[in-house]
Fold:
Amino acid sequence: MPLIDSNENKKKLCHLYNEIAKSLFGFGTTLLRVTIDDRIITYYAKHRRSPRSDALEGEAPTLKHEVDFYMSSIYKKKLREKLEQEFGLEIEALLRDYDPATQWAITNVILNEPK
Structure:
């Protein structure tokens, strides 16, 4: 089921994304934009740097990389659940790429084909 590209939907999608960031990291994003194009919702997000990340990076860079990977996986799981629950979306795939060096994340949500 496609999502209508409206300012109201974009605001709701951004709010939902930031809620998840706050629940996982204690704070939201510094920059967040969302686009809706037919069956694809794309989030462009610049996250805040966590003091814990800085500490891990200096002391245990491999562990920091592993933590970043798992936190991104948890983010995807929570985002999928919330989008399905709150918007009633049927999601085919949720893809997220996060660059720890710059704190940028791009998330693509691909919706199922309409029946």
